[in-house]
């Protein structure tokens, strides 16, 4: 009997604590890209404030739908909404965290950071115009590299993704041919190549297939020890894929004159800027029905900006630069009603 | 004893009527419970069809019947250009190749197990088949991606391409370059996945053949092959086809394993070593990040798969009917 009583008591305690925890929980949904760092922040926030963050990484498109339907407190998307769309839905939007996107290759004898590519060449490879590794355009960028005369196998994402959105956005900015034939989007009509599921699918494919090229988030390339390339940026400088280069793209971008922070960090100016940087944006209702939840979410994001930079870097994310964070905090007090 | 029967006799007429009506009530209740269960299947199926149609209406209005023969799939174009030809082709081709491999192998295993196999080997083989059916599809996908794909691309495909090089039609079907991810690789994985369906159902129906029939055939001097061909298979034809249909249904709709190794490309190529996609793989990949017309197009693809499966199964039923007529039943 005693044993039974303990069980019942324990059950009751568990039930009451979970209900109180639910009451103060913040709910969010969307981008899969932000999920690893968001859960790390949520963990730290729970320890500090006792409030949990319940985030479902169901994809940016689905996240936008959930916040539109008001089933969550915040949404997260890799492709920002345009200012008129934000106005229509009554959303506030700001960038939360960034990550670099790098081309990865598997070519015999080529080590990480050795090969140099630029936007136009990359676009020609992904459109099927450049088919061999020893093509004149690639040779011109890499006069000293020994490149095989083998066919290039192109690997792209099969699932709709923010990574694809930013990558195709970059190709559209650097190649008129790509812009008119393929365009940008979370899923596009790929002229050549095979599709793999997720960053891990592309990484796995590149690792297995000789003479292949693909694109992944920097964290995947680094963790899987893939051979990533250097890039020629908008200023014409050759840059290496480093955190400084990713952050330079964000610092040099002109956030103040972008309404609703609608800014895609590809092909940004600056000598040190890496040309393909992905940003995840948070969406919230300006005039939410549940104001308490809304305020709690803002507290969480403030905490993430102030104390989460280190944990973001540990996971190979790039925190927003200080000048941008200041701007965002101003937006909160001006836009979101409490 | 006598006393008891007296009691029963005395209470007879009254109890009998009551008991009968109780039975009747039980019968009616039972009848309605089973009937409602049966009807619920129709309701669920109808509900699925209706919601698919509602979701697909915008895409149907936009593309009409051209959806069926448009090969382009460009969701990011403005407005999106969507066509189902690529995924439909991939679905049919992979299922066809899978059945081409799985039916003879599956029947072969079943015949060996029931007619030829020594007693001590039966259990291990039977268990192996059940285990094959129990492996989750994601495991098949990963195995196909890491093990089968590289093997096929490095060994099997170059060999086939070399053999058929220069032969008119076959040369185009088995054309290079070899690829880790291709229609053929997906079809081979599908064949392995549907094998247990065909085998275990065939084994079960083969066991229903009355021993006296087989013994009589052996008695007049038939060989094992003749007994299987002329007694076992004709006797169990309906059951075998049922198993094949279940397998085909799975092959048409399998998603996870296929997405891993088919290459997810909407282009149609004459070569089975080229990447392709299937309807279910396309939906699974793109649905989460889709909206508007793109999403509606994916739902229309789903509806199409539904219709396609229906026609394939109906066609098989028709074939079965004709076979039975031919057999004079």
TrEMBL record, chain A:
Residues 18-305 form the PBP domain. One of its GO terms (cellular component) is ATP-binding cassette (ABC) transporter complex. Keywords: Phosphate transport, Signal, Transport. The keyword Signal applies. InterPro entries: ABC_phos-bd_PstS, PBP_domain, Phosphate-bind_PstS. It holds the Pfam family PBP_like_2. Residues 1-23 form the signal peptide. GO terms for biological process: phosphate ion transmembrane transport. GO terms for molecular function: phosphate ion binding. Belongs to the PstS family. Part of the ABC transporter complex PstSACB involved in phosphate import. The complex is composed of two ATP-binding proteins (PstB), two transmembrane proteins (PstC and PstA) and a solute-binding protein (PstS). This is Phosphate-binding protein PstS. It comes from Bradyrhizobium guangzhouense.
């Amino acid at each position: 009997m005693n044993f039974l009583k303990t069980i019942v008591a324990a059950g009751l305690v568990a039930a009451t604590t979970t209900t109180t925890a639910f009451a103060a929980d913040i709910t969010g949904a969307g981008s899969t890209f932000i999920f690893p760092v968001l859960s790390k922040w949520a963990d730290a926030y729970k320890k500090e404030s006792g409030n949990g963050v319940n985030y479902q990484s169901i994809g940016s498109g689905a996240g936008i739908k959930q916040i539109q339907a008001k089933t969550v407190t915040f949404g997260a998307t890799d492709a920002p909404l345009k200012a008129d769309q934000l106005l229509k839905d009554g959303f506030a939007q700001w960038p939360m965290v960034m990550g670099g996107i790098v081309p990865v290759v598997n070519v015999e004898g080529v080590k990480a950071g050795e090969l140099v590519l630029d936007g136009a060449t990359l676009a020609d490879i992904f459109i099927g115009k450049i088919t061999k590794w020893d093509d004149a355009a690639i040779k011109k960028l890499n006069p000293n590299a020994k490149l095989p005369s083998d066919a290039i196998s192109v690997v792209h994402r099969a699932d709709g993704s923010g990574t694809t959105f930013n990558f195709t956005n970059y190709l559209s900015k650097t190649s008129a041919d790509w812009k008119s034939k393929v365009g940008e989007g979370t899923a596009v009509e790929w002229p050549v190549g095979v599709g793999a599921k997720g960053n891990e699918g592309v990484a796995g494919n590149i690792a297995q297939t000789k003479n292949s090229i693909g694109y992944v988030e920097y964290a995947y390339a680094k963790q899987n020890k893939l051979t990533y390339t250097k890039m020629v940026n908008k200023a014409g400088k050759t840059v290496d894929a480093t955190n400084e280069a990713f952050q330079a793209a964000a610092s040099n971008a002109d956030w103040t004159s972008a309404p609703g922070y609608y800014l895609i960090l590809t092909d940004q100016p600056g000598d040190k800027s890496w040309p393909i940087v992905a940003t995840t944006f948070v969406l919230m209702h300006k005039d939410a029905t549940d104001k308490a939840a809304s305020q709690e979410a803002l507290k969480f994001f403030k905490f993430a900006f102030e104390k989460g930079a280190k944990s973001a870097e540990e996971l190979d994310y790039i925190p927003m630069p200080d000048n941008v964070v200041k701007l965002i905090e101003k937006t909160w007090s001006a836009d979101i009603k409490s | 004893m006598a006393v008891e029967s007296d009691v029963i006799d005395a209470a007879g007429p009254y109890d009998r009527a009551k008991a009968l009506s109780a039975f009747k009530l039980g019968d009616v209740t039972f009848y309605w419970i089973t009937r409602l269960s049966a009807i619920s299947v129709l309701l669920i199926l109808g509900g699925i069809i209706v919601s698919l149609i509602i979701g697909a209406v915008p895409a149907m209005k936009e593309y009409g019947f051209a959806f069926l023969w448009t090969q382009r799939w460009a969701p990011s174009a403005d407005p999106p250009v969507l066509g189902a030809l690529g995924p439909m082709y991939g679905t049919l081709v992979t299922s066809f190749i899978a059945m081409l491999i799985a039916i003879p192998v599956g029947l072969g295993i079943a015949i060996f197990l029931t007619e030829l196999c020594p007693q001590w080997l039966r259990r291990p083989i039977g268990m192996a088949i059940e285990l094959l059916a129990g492996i989750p599809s994601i495991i098949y996908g990963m195995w196909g991606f890491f093990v089968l794909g590289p093997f096929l691309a490095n060994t099997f495909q170059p060999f086939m391409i070399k053999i058929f090089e220069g032969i008119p039609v076959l040369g185009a079907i088995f054309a290079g370059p070899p690829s880790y991810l291709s229609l053929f690789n997906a079809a081979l994985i599908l064949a392995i996945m549907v094998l247990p369906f065909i085998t275990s159902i065939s084994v079960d129906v083969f066991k229903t053949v009355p021993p006296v029939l087989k013994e009589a055939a052996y008695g007049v001097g038939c060989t094992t092959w003749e007994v299987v061909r002329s007694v076992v298979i004709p006797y169990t034809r309906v059951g075998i086809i049922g198993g094949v249909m279940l397998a085909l249904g799975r092959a048409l709709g399998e998603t996870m394993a296929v997405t891993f190794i088919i290459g997810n490309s909407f282009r149609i190529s004459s070569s089975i070593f080229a990447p392709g996609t299937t309807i279910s793989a396309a939906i699974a990949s793109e649905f989460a990040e889709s909206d508007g017309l793109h999403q509606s197009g994916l739902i229309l693809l789903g509806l199409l798969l539904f219709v396609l499966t229906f026609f394939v199964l109906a066609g098989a039923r028709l074939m079965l009917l004709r076979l039975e007529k031919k057999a004079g039943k």
